[in-house]
Amino acid sequence: MKNKIMTICLCLFSAALFAQAKKPSLMVVPSDSWCTTNRVMEVYYNQGVEEYIPDYKLALLHADLMNVISKINILMADRGFPLKDLSATMKSINKVNAENSQLTSKTSGAALAESPLDRIRRAAKSDIILEVDWQVKSTGPKKSITYNLRALDAYTSKQVAGAQGTGAPSFSAEVAVLLEEAVLVNMDSFVNQLQAHFDDLLTNGREVTLDLLVFDNGSGVDLESEFGGSELIESIDNWMAQNTVNHRFNKSDATETMALYEGVRIPLYKANGMAQDTDGFARELRSFLKKAPYNLDVKIVNRGLGRAALVIGEK
Amino acid sequence: MNKYSLVLLCAIFSISAHITFASNPKKEAAQWKYDIECAGTGSEGTFLVKIWTYSNKGTIPNEEAKKNAVHGVLFRGFAANGVGCVSQRPLIKDASIQHEKADYFNSFFGKESPYLKYATISSSVPEVVKVSKKEYKVGYVVSVSKDLLRKDLEVAGIVKSLSAGF
Fold it and tell me: Which of residues 159-178 of A touch B (CB under 8 A)?
């Protein structure tokens, strides 16, 4: 018996010792402004309203953009933090789409079950988006580059790092050379800011967003329903306060059918020492709501490393 | 009696050693009396800096300029100027690390001079400016291999790598 306890203790200890926080993925994409200037925007009609979205496939045919993305990828890999590549991700998505459309069951010939949400979700995405933009400025024969690189947290919509500036004007240098210089010169201060963001994350917990929604299934349960003398939303607030790092969270918006929690600082590790993401944190909240006096069914929608939605009412 | 005198001698020796080797802020400030400024865009993985070293004579050894350049990149950083530079923060954000890891940095800037492998003098002739009656500042353009320096500091555990903790 003692041996068993010792073994379990050792396993937990080693899990805690070697646990690593989940690494955010980063990907460089051209900014909307760059795509508009270079006419690589796709037009679509959303219920009659004209909307523009960047056409990355077309943008990647731009040689300067490929050079810039490649240079940033190289410099980040050199820092021990390889990035997701936009071009490779797009190709991989196309390949998976093609394979999935042809995949059938051997026995019944059934195709894959795929919801419209699955199709929308299968897009190039990352936890932190590195948005790059530049303009070539000419003053007489002199050329200079105004360069802007921003790191945006996909879940909190915060800019976590940035580097912006105009390089020295040159008579002779080509645009590609000026661009390379702009990337090199601005990279160190950019990475320093990114490092500060990661340090904050490791010290104060990951900052995530949680959406609480309610299924309109006629059960009458919503966030104002009372359990044991208090409203459901109050119980959820109390649970959040108890389970966030230093009780840090912000309820930005709430009605009887929805609540938006932003700036939720979740611990990087679970109680057993394993790495935790927002999906795991949402599952803990679901377990709380499943118990008495609530006894609620909750569906979890994973929206990435830093965002999840809980839909109350049914699965 | 002999035993007591031996103990006494040891105590005197240790106290005198402490007084001699204890960090003296004024002495330390004099040791690192230099100005650092950006001298342009260096090649990939390097910073090109101009180091102005203060001296009683109009000349300084090349090693002195290299030592100050590496020290400047490590602990001071430099400001932007009009030659395409952007301001750079020091590689080591917390300056107190120089004291906390005194053994490492004493050896780094010591006799064996491991810092020399990170710096190259780019200007063959130094610029000399007379500051006062008895003081000059000597300017060298030095290229510092900051990427190599940062990697070695990461290995030595002085700075954290970007992926540390993940």
Answer: 163, 165, 167-168
- Nearest Cα of chain A lies from the Cα of B92 at a distance, in angstroms, of 11
In chain B, DSSP assigns E strands to: 34-40, 47-55, 119-121, 127-130, 136-144
Residue B127 belongs to some domain of the structure: yes
Distance from CA of A157 to the nearest CA of B (A): 21
Separation between Cα atoms, residue B85 and residue A303, nearest integer Å: 40
The residues, any chain, with a CB within 8 Å of residue A199's CB and separated by 6 or more, are B160
Per-residue pLDDT of A90-112, as tens digits, reads 899 889 889 988 998 988 889 88
CATH class of A205-312: alpha beta
Q: Is residue B162 part of a domain?
A: no
In terms of residues, how long is chain A? 315
Type of residue found at A73 = N
Residue B30 in any domain: the answer is yes
CATH of the domain spanning A26-33+61-93+119-203: 3.30.160
Structural domain contains residue B164: no
Chain B residues closer than 8 Å to A168 by CB? 41, 82-84
Smallest CA–CA distance from A145 into chain B, residue = B84
Give B12-35 pLDDT, tens digit per residue.
555 544 444 444 555 555 678 999
Nearest residue in A to B42, CA atom = A185
Q: Determine the structural domain holding residue B47 and report its residue range.
A: 24-155
How do residues A112-158 score in pLDDT, each as one tens digit?
887 777 776 777 788 999 999 999 999 888 999 999 999 999 888 89
**Nearest-CA distance from A250 to chain B in Å?**
26
